[in-house]
Write a structure and sequence with these properties.
Layout: H1 2-27, E1 37-43, E2 47-56, E3 64-74, E4 78-85, E5 92-94, E6 101-107, E7 119-125, E8 131-134, E9 140-141, E10 147-148, E11 171-172, E12 177-179, E13 185-188, E14 191-194, E15 200-202, E16 208-210, E17 226-231, E18 233-235, H2 241-274
Antiparallel strand pairs: 1-4, 2-3, 5-18, 6-17, 7-8, 7-14, 9-10, 11-12, 12-13, 15-16
């Protein structure tokens, strides 16, 4: 009976965590560059049960042969195994803002070790050192003329330096070059490449960092990597709102079903304690 409590509780916890992930996806359906999180639920290994008994052997000494009689398998519940980001390209939204830019995936190789397709990101200077990465190209100019993201982090050039502009009268070419109003190239916007995006840790505000706080290599000149930058456009979130809402309702109903089973177990235990225990 008590094993049933644990099994049902594990199902409720897994569905609660899945609901939180789907809710976060829905909340960021309109966040530029946001990549939806995907979750996988897996069952714990089954427990094989056997009954221990003995068979008497008709001998002078009355020997008994110990035996194990298989009963069957007992499931031990489920758990949320992992959460991974869906790195599929989002659609482009035209904004007309001169400091907005979107990354457009053209060809990204598949990592042989993990089987995952590579991904590219804008490079940002992290305040704690090293670099952060994002797909959100909604940039602006700060008071000193530095190109920054919405949290005020410096956008880095291909050379790894903050990009400083005289004004926002710029043009960003398809190969990432930033051209000022006089036709001179100021910098090339920094783009990093990750052969396996699973090595990145997702943080708040659409930022990613390496798990070991390392630095990703540049996407420029990488074998098999081709991409373009789209000026005055933003990459939309790749959240499928309709599918997310359907999955959210499914997770809620699964949680509710586990809850009803838990209540049934509770009533059974109450009856066992209050009625059977009196006999």
């Amino acid at each position: 009976m008590f094993k049933g409590f644990y099994t049902v509780a594990s199902g409720m916890l897994a569905q609660q965590r899945r609901t939180e992930i789907l809710t976060n996806n829905m909340a960021n359906a309109n966040t530029p560059g946001f990549k939806a999180d995907q979750s996988t639920i897996r069952s714990f290994p089954d427990m094989l049960l056997s009954a221990k008994g003995a068979t008497n052997i008709p001998t002078e000494k009355g020997l008994a042969l110990k035996q194990l009689k298989p009963i069957g398998a007992l499931t031990t519940g489920v758990y949320l195994q992992e959460t991974i980001a869906n790195n599929a390209q989002g659609s482009l939204l035209q904004t007309g803002m001169p400091t907005d830019v979107a990354l457009v995936d053209v060809t990204l190789p598949i990592d042989e070790a993990s089987g995952n397709q590579g991904a590219i990101y804008f490079r940002l200077q992290h305040p704690e050192g090293g670099e952060a990465y994002t797909r959100n190209g909604n940039f602006t100019l700060d008071g000193q003329g530095n190109l920054v993201n919405g949290q005020g982090l410096y956008v880095l050039s291909e050379a790894g330096q903050p990009i400083q502009l005289a004004n926002d009268n710029i043009t960003i070419t398809s190969n990432g070059a930033i051209i000022d109003e006089n036709g001179a190239q100021v910098a090339t916007i920094g783009v990093a490449f990750s052969a396996n995006p699973d090595v990145l840790m997702k943080q708040d505000n659409g930022l990613y960092r390496m798990l070991d706080e390392g630095i990703l290599p540049s996407a420029y000149g990488q074998a098999g990597v081709t991409f373009t930058t789209s000026h005055k456009n933003l990459e939309a979130s790749n959240v499928d709102s309709a599918r997310s809402m359907t999955d959210l309702l499914t997770a809620y109903r699964a949680f509710e079903a586990n809850q009803k089973v838990l209540q049934a177990y509770d009533r059974s235990m109450e009856k066992a304690v209050n009625e059977i225990g009196k006999v």
